[in-house]
Design goal:
The chain is globular, with a radius of gyration of 23 Å. It has 16 helices and 22 strands. With 519 residues, it is of the alpha/beta class. Strands 6, 7, 13, 14, 15, 16, 17, 18 and 21 form a nine-stranded antiparallel sheet that branches. The protein has a six-stranded parallel sheet with strand order 1-8-4-3-12-22. Strands 2-11-10-9 form a four-stranded mixed sheet, with no helix packed on it. The chain has a domain of 270 residues: FAD/NAD(P)-binding domain.
Length: 519
């Protein structure tokens, strides 16, 4: 059953088994699985059925270091279906090494091994209509080109992308799921002496307030919003829920993704070749896959790098002096890390307007060269964090303030994989690499024109001990008996692979845990 604001706000309170805050990939998959287990659910969508500026405005915030590629406002969507409304559908499994402690990566390791998720990955594949064998054995696929020296990996693209359309009928017909549109979490009423939840209060955009009582409560609002909502529970004399050891909002991670070098063949730069990932591989069911090449774990361990993968892709030309200066000005205007702009930057833009326009065009049509692109894990650094600004959104909650920057380990990992890729290209008699000039000019930072920015992770991290995390291995908030968090915010490390497939696997695992322990 789906209810608009005017339909659910005519009551003062509701009682149900489970309250889920957030109707994106995590919330919808969890609600449908709980329905199958005969558990009643209220699923809260803070936005409405369609995009609405009033709702999206709640995602505005401040950035104190490097901005996300699409900013806080544009890297998420706040209406029914959440960020599946801009999801490309790429699915892949985290590597087994992502789950283990790696001595050269501080704060690495999950509370369990990858084997714990195998059956739930299987279930997620069925849910999304994917062939799990393709994901696990990409080297056996026809027309999937190997790159000698690297592990072949793929992202398999599901057709079930827009959850608001794919599962709308199921939710409308459901007798055990009530979906509330325009229902914004406002207050978490907790017990007097613990972080357990007594009830929550939601508010509509027209000011109507309703109290919800449940046996269990789940936050499923994404890698940034889960932390923001919990940080807003801080009251005088009481820390925010889940923040007994100041871990809430910390360890924010994303996937740095960008082109970084040009592939050079015997006759100059290549405009196409057989490893070009733009040539998506079609499968028999009409789906598609795209290859990634992961640097083997033995080399990661030897050179002490993060988990890193690469692609080769037809791409726009590298940034020139004018484009780099334009990026600096863009960052200044977005209140990012460039606090001052030099006269040389203004001059570069003025005298390179033509190349800047051409660069924008090339970017829109993916043309110009075959580039080496990287997609790497980010170090779970404690200083990368979500806090709250003094400004409030229209619901009355304090807005997000993000501090996000890179460590030496990200750049070291990039340097290693670039050098190793060049070696492998030369060994295969394909060619070599010409490093983008911005990486030569700045030997410490990552490229300015990062892509991605929608794989937010780590801010309510999973841990075996309350001193080092926010939730336990079953996603229950430490010091709470009935509050759980679902989504990539619980990832202790984010690997290199896109997170949604793992989120849905964790969703099915959580549904099973709730059924066994609470119902």
């Amino acid at each position: 059953m789906i209810l608009n604001e005017s339909e659910w706000s005519d009551k003062t309170s509701y009682l149900t088994d489970v309250v889920i805050v957030g109707a994106g990939a995590a919330g919808i998959s969890l609600a449908l699985e709980l329905e199958r287990k005969k558990i009643n659910v209220i699923l809260l969508e803070g936005g409405k059925d369609l995009f609405d500026e009033e709702s999206q405005d709640c995602y505005r915030g401040k950035v104190t270091a490097r901005d996300l590629p699409y900013g806080l406002y544009n890297s998420r969507l706040r209406f029914f279906g959440g960020s599946t409304n801009c999801w490309a559908g790429g699915c892949g499994e985290l590597d087994k090494e992502d789950f283990i402690y790696r001595p050269w990566i501080k704060n690495s390791g999950w509370p369990f091994a990858k084997t714990e998720l195998i059956s739930w990955y299987n279930k997620a594949a069925v849910f999304l209509g994917l062939d799990i064998d393709r994901i696990r054995n990409p080297e056996k696929l026809k027309n999937m080109p190997p790159f000698h020296g690297f592990n072949t990996r793929i992202l398999e693209f599901t057709k079930k992308v827009r959850f608001k359309h794919e599962f709308r009928q199921d939710l409308e017909k459901s007798k055990s799921i009530k979906v509330f549109f325009g229902a914004n979490l406002h207050t978490v009423n907790r017990m007097s002496d613990t972080d357990s939840v007594e009830s929550i209060q939601v508010v509509s955009f027209n000011g109507k307030k309703v109290v919800l009582f449940g046996n269990a409560y789940i936050l499923a609002c994404g890698g940034i919003e889960n932390a923001r909502l919990l940080l807003n529970t801080e009251k005088k004399g009481r820390k925010a829920i889940g923040n007994a050891f100041d871990n809430l909002g910390r360890f924010f991670s994303d996937h740095p993704i960008a082109p970084c070098a040009t592939v050079i063949g015997v006759s100059g730069k290549l405009t196409d070749f057989f490893l070009n990932s733009r040539k998506f591989i079609e499968n028999k069911k009409g789906g598609r896959s795209t290859p990634f090449y992961r640097m083997p774990y033995e080399l990661q361990k030897k050179y002490k790098t993060l988990n890193v993968s690469i692609q080769f892709a037809t791409q726009e030309e590298e940034l020139g002096a004018g484009e780099i200066s334009a990026w600096k000005i863009k960052r200044l205007l977005s209140k990012s890390e460039y606090s001052s702009i030099k006269a040389k930057d203004i001059k570069n833009v003025v005298f390179n307007l033509s190349s800047i326009v051409n660069s924008i065009y090339d970017r829109s049509v993916n043309s110009g060269r075959v580039a080496l692109r990287f997609q790497i894990e980010q170090l779970p650094a404690k200083n990368n964090r979500i806090t709250l600004s003094g400004e409030r959104d229209s619901v009355g909650l304090r807005r997000t303030k993000l501090h996000w920057e890179f460590s030496e380990l990200e750049r070291h990992s990039l340097n290693v994989v670039i050098a190793y890729t060049a070696k492998c290209l030369q060994s295969a008699n394909i060619g070599t690499l010409k490093l983008d000039s911005q990486l030569i000019d700045d030997p410490l930072d990552l490229p300015m024109d990062l892509r991605g920015g929608q794989h937010h992770s780590g801010t309510t991290r999973m841990s075996l001990a309350r001193e080092t995390g926010v939730v336990d291995e079953n996603l229950k908030v430490f010091d709470s008996e009935n509050l759980y968090i679902l989504g990539s915010s619980v990832f202790p490390t984010n690997g290199w692979v896109n997170p949604t497939f793992t989120i849905i696997a964790l969703s099915f695992r959580l549904a099973n845990h709730l059924k066994v322990t609470r119902f």
